[in-house]
Amino acid sequence: AQTVTQSQPEMSVQEAETVTLSCTYDTSESDYYLFWYKQPPSRQMILVIRQEAYKQQNATENRFSVNFQKAAKSFSLKISDSQLGDAAMYFCAYRRYFGNEKLTFGTGTRLTIIP
Amino acid sequence: NAGVTQTPKFRVLKTGQSMTLLCAQDMNHEYMYWYRQDPGMGLRLIHYSVGEGTTAKGEVPDGYNVSRLKKQNFLLGLESAAPSQTSVYFCASSYLGQASGNTIYFGEGSWLTVV
After folding, report:
1. Contact B4, B24 (CB under 8 A)
2. What is d(CA B13, CA B64) in angstroms, rounded to the nearest whole number?
3. Under an 8 A CB cutoff, do A45 and B106 touch?
4. Chain A residues touching B105 at Cβ < 8 A
5. How does pLDDT run along chain A (115 residues), one tens digit per residue?
6. Cα–Cα distance for residue pair A77/A70, rounded to 1 Å
7. Chain A residues within 8 A of B50 when measuring between CB atoms
8. Closest approach of chain A CAs to the CA of B13, in angstroms?
9. Contact indicator for A114, A13 with CB cutoff of 8 Å
10. Which of A30, A45, B11, B79 is deepest in the core (most CB within 10 A)?
């Protein structure tokens, strides 16, 4: 079974600075998807970024980028120029490439932005 | 753009009462899911469906039942509510196959308290 581990329960960063959230996962599959979801106080789950395991290039979405290390099974999220609106819980998640598999989530990292 | 809609948003139940959470999606997705989220934990899958008329158990199915009589709707039932079922419930949906990068879209959550 796949597992996802987020070892940082809480992180904080100064506004306008850069922060990196860590995620590791365990799988025997070679093809899969990895996701970062943001959950603000409203509790809505918002997709931040998606990475296909077969792509070597790291995904980027504006101020959000990932460092995907397939051999190390590591998938970290970098937030550049942190803004107050980035404060939220961030969940790393894994999904198999084929089939109807659900998302497997990590336990989350609470990010605080310091003004 | 409705996306995934959950009703009700909030509910307080007494132990032993029954209720049904309704999820509706307007994206013609084949897959639908019910997750629960508890403090300090990521989302855990309760039940899921790969198409109209089908359902399957997830990680934590005990105490819940589901039905998918129409493609756009996925119902989660609690037959005899227990305080351990106090949680935030999320419905989600996605396309079959690799369309849209296997992204799963979430509803806004339903807060359920069992007293």
Report:
1. yes
2. 15
3. yes
4. 47
5. 789 999 999 999 999 999 999 999 999 988 889 999 999 988 889 999 999 898 888 999 999 999 999 999 999 999 999 999 999 999 999 988 776 567 889 999 999 999 9
6. 14
7. 100
8. 21
9. yes
10. A45
